[in-house]
């Protein structure tokens, strides 16, 4: 099962903005909801965004997401050192009848 | 507090078997899809399997199909993953994760159980 494609890494200075792309196909992102996860070192992943654009409980509005066609994007504004983590997108693939994660993106705060 | 706790991880030889458990508390377990997700050392997340609330629908990743079996006991708020014919490439931390509204909205995760397949 092919993973969704994310850039390996993105970086920016504190207070700046980063965006993370997640590319798939019509059978997954194109026709299913996308969710986004933050994984801090040594910890379990944490749900940030569900149903393409909805923030999970307790997630600040510095985190936002969108979806267009077969791609999705996570944005983080007002970057903080605590945002340094790995970020993953996920969705369902209707053709494979399987879940699929993105390849993961490491966010570095310079 | 909504909680998932995995157990049963360990070291096993290639070709061996292991059974993981996931104990749920703090929510109505029988109302939710539950999933297994794994993460090999230093690698990304990989979806493994999902089971619907009443076990009517079960799905597996191609990499584990025919070797792994997911099941649940709603009376005891427990999820299981029976892993047979284990391979070195199955070495990973295995997380159980609750599905919220849709299968892949994983809103609650356990701490993970390490499975090491090595001779």
Structure notes:
The complex is a heterodimer of chains A (110) and B (119). Chain A is an all-beta fold and 110 residues long. Helices cover 0% and strands 47% of the residues of chain A. Chain A is built from no helices and ten strands. The N and C termini of chain A lie far apart (34 Å). Chain B is 0% helix and 52% strand. Chain B has strands at 3-7, 10-12, 18-25, 33-39, 45-51, 58-60, 68-73, 78-83, 92-99, 106-109, 113-117. In chain B, the strands form two sheets. In chain B, strands 2, 4, 5, 6, 9, 10 and 11 form a seven-stranded mixed beta sheet that branches. A four-stranded antiparallel beta sheet of chain B has the order 1-3-8-7, with no helix packed on it. In chain B, β5 (45-51) and β6 (58-60) form a beta hairpin. The radius of gyration of chain B is 13 Å and the shape is globular. Chain B starts with a strand and ends with a strand. The A-B interface holds A 1, 3, 32-33, 35, 37, 39, 44-47, 50-51, 56, 86, 88, 90-92, 96-104 and B 35, 37, 44-47, 50, 59-63, 95, 97, 100-107, 109-112.
Q: Approximately how much beta-strand content do the residues of chain B carry? A: over 45%
- By helix and strand content of chain B, what is the structural category? mainly beta
Task: Give the overall shape of chain B.
Answer: globular
Total helix count of chain B?
Answer: 0
Low-confidence stretches of chain A: none
Secondary-structure content class of chain A: mainly beta
- Element-level helix/strand string of chain A: EEEEEEEEEE
Indicate the radius of gyration of chain B in whole angstroms.
13 Å
Beta-strand portion of chain A reads over 45%
- The count of β-strands of chain B is 11
Taking pLDDT < 50 over at least 5 consecutive residues as the criterion, the unreliable ranges of chain B are none
Largest sheet of chain A: 7 strands, mixed
Pattern of helices and strands of chain B: EEEEEEEEEEE
Helix content of chain A: under 10%
Shape of chain A: globular
The Rg value of chain A, from CA coordinates, equals 13 Å
Largest interface (CB within 8 Å) is between:
A-B, 28 and 26 residues
How many extended strands of chain A?
10
């Amino acid at each position: 099962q092919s993973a969704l494609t994310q850039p390996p890494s993105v970086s920016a200075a504190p207070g700046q903005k980063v965006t993370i792309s997640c590319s798939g196909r019509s059978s997954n992102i194109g026709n299913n909801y996308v969710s986004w996860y933050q994984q801090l070192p040594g910890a379990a992943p944490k749900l940030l965004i569900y149903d393409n654009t909805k923030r999970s409980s307790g997630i600040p509005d510095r985190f936002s997401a969108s979806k267009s066609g077969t791609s999705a994007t996570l944005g983080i504004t007002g970057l903080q050192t605590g945002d340094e983590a790995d970020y993953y997108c996920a969705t369902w693939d209707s053709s494979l009848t399987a879940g699929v994660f993105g390849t993961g993106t490491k966010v570095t705060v310079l | 507090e909504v909680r998932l706790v995995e157990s049963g991880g360990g070291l096993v030889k290639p070709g061996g078997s292991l059974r993981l458990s996931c104990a749920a508390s703090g929510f109505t377990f029988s109302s939710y899809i539950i999933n297994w997700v794994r993460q090999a050392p230093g690698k990304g997340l990989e979806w493994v399997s999902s089971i619907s609330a009443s076990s009517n629908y079960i799905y597996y990743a191609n990499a584990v199909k025919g070797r792994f079996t997911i099941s649940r006991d709603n009376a005891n708020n427990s999820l299981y993953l029976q892993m047979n014919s284990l391979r070195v490439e199955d070495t990973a931390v295995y997380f159980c994760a609750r599905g919220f509204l849709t299968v892949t909205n994983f809103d609650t995760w356990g701490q993970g159980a390490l499975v090491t397949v090595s001779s």
